[in-house]
Amino acid sequence: MTSRVLTLGGGGFSMEPDNPLLDDFCLSLVPHGRTPRVCFVPTASGDAQSYVDGFETAFAGRAETSVLRLFGREVRDLRALVTAQDVVYVGGGSTLNLLALWRLHGLDVVLREAWEAGVVMAGVSAGMNCWFEGSITDSWSPDLAPLDDGLGLLPGTACPHYDGEERRRPAYEAAVADGFGEGHAADDGAALLFTDGVLDEVVSSRPAARAHRVERGEGGVTSTPLPTRYLG
Asked: What domains can be seen in the chain, in order of their start residue?
């Protein structure tokens, strides 16, 4: 089966409620001919109800929706729920808390199995970070710091909000310069599609939004903009 992950640096229904381009692209990854089944996982926000409401509003009439809450968990069989989906869409918030809670519930294992079976994994911000080996995060404090304990479905490290938060880019590049893993950064409004662990395409909901490959070199850290297809 083809394994795909769509990582949003920022955007989607939670950040661009009037610009559905990235969410439309996510749904386009589901084979035509049936209503997509999309499960929202809001763990990183503490299962915030306002976040759930935003998801259900954005996808109403376009998908068969479900929500997987781990605070006040109601779903006994996580595997049955997750593997029945076309898309698992992970919201933003605390990457550190998300990973810890997923592992306690065994959701990390279930998500990997579903990904290997062809369920599209998607997410924004913390929902971008979680799929990589490492990421830059403010989960410990307002100060950004590297986290090297991601799920590892994708190789390397990640940085969302590359242009959307003024401290993100310098913090990520400083970490890479100091030996943190190289990887990919995404502006708000940019998304990277990985197929079988390899970058397939970069798309954007904003004309100027880009994704970048961030690497160490003899002259220091380089941030190379990647070819990006504007969806508008």
From this structure: 4-230 (3.40.50.880)
